[in-house]
Design a protein that fits this description.
The protein has 534 residues and is an alpha/beta fold. It has helices at residues 50-53, 68-74, 130-137, 145-148, 187-207, 217-230, 243-254, 274-297, 310-326, 339-351, 359-368, 374-386, 395-408, 416-429, 434-437, 481-489, 511-523; strands spanning 60-61, 82-89, 99-107, 118-122, 150-154, 236-241, 259-265, 329-331, 335-337, 466-473, 492-500, 531-533. The radius of gyration is 22 Å and the shape is globular. The two termini are 26 Å apart.
Length: 534
Amino acid sequence: MTSVRRPSCFNRLLRVSNVTVPLAAATLLAPGIAGCTASSGRAAGEPDLSAYYEQQITWKPCSKETDKAVKDETEKADASAECGRLKVPYTYADPRKGEIGLALMRYRAKGGADRGGSLVLNFGGPGESGLKQLKEYGPDGFSKAGTRYDLVTFDPRGVGASSPVLCGGDGGMTEAEHAPGPDLSGPDGMADFIADQERALQRCKRTAGNIIPYVGTVNAARDLDVLRAALGEEKLNYLGFSYGTKLGAVYAHRFPTKVGRMVMDGVDEPAPNLKDSTLAQTAAYQRALRHAVEMCTSRGDEDCALGSDTDKAMTNVARAFDELDDQPIDWPGGRKLDREGAIEETMGLLRSRESLPETPNLLAAIIYHVHPGEAAELGRAAADRAGGKRENGSHGKVEEAMTAINCADTSGRYTTRQVVSAYHEFVRASPVFGPFMAAGMAACTGWPQAGDDTSHDVRAVGAPKILMHTTEYDPATPVQWLPKMAAAVGSAVTMTDTGGGHSVYGTQDATCVNERIDAFLLEGTLPPDHSTCT
């Protein structure tokens, strides 16, 4: 489940709560040795993949890129940005079925002779464009990593400029992108929503083309190994955020001897299902909300617009959100703020380490119907980043790719009756977020392509230690998923910090986290297992 590195909230007809719920997919191991022939380790009966493993990437300035999708994603990137392409097969089981061209981007290391190779980044979602995210953060957006490594990213298959899943043309899953959202304030509204969603998802069978059967985490992990070889790296040095941690874990499972220095920030669940994972996220958002409120109320009445009583403030917040179901309020930019908008903006702030302190101001504006000032602008920007929205209207495409990958990665399909029956569990987990988060359980209800659970196996026998980090109040990848992933992988060092936000490496307010991850990436020095930054 991504935020900007991180997955999304909801669109009008497909509200897949940032259900990082990375789920599963399937395929065989890809043989290959970086920088030399891939056929040497090929078992009898396996297809010859050497042509893919022997590729050399042609890099050129992104400013000279002619592909429209790549141009859109890299527009206004730092002048040093370079773009390239990598060919991978639709299916590794039978490369004759066709190829996909993966869009690549990199910033060259600034360390000169001290260069440590390439560091491949995945920003989560699933569905986030790596090119767009790397452009947003620039060559200096990852603490000290860019001083030693070439920062390399890619649009995974089905995403962005790499044969994107397109279910409804430029308008995304629905033509009603700006229409009022469905009423999810009760079980009946949820049933209506699912019926509308099923119709929207079925359209993908007719419009998305050949890519849908071939997306998913396992195929993306195999693509990672082809990328490793094309970069001339014997080992994959990797930094994954949110869903990107699941992709890294699947890679480590399938290519344990090819793992270099691997970092996971905002650690996903290894073997999720849509109901339990979305319920866990719902509770995590509620916990993160209370944490943000407590940071304010602990300062007392004079310094906190929410007062000094945390329980009372939380009650007022829940009541104010309920009232938005019936009576949206005036909001900056000539907008009306309804419950969906309030949830998106609040989630955006909770996921952003830098913007988290503005959450109480946003909540106070919603409660007292006053102008929110900077909080509204930060909340809107954070929500847009989390949802993949950009000025070129890519939001629907992010949602479509997220759905295709999530649904490729699980065999689970819930019926409308099952979702409606679980509705009140979500409301109990969070009176504020529960009514909308419940829709995440129905993310694959009506999806036209079957999925499987292959990627739930992430045991990485023989892999070196992987550094895994999650904040204590991460709303999108709950902190309890950290030890679950570590145990499932079996080769990990875990760390937490006492703050909030989702996938915080590289942010200014995460000094301790930055220092420890830098020490590992640059020097190979791991922190003590189960350590905590304060």
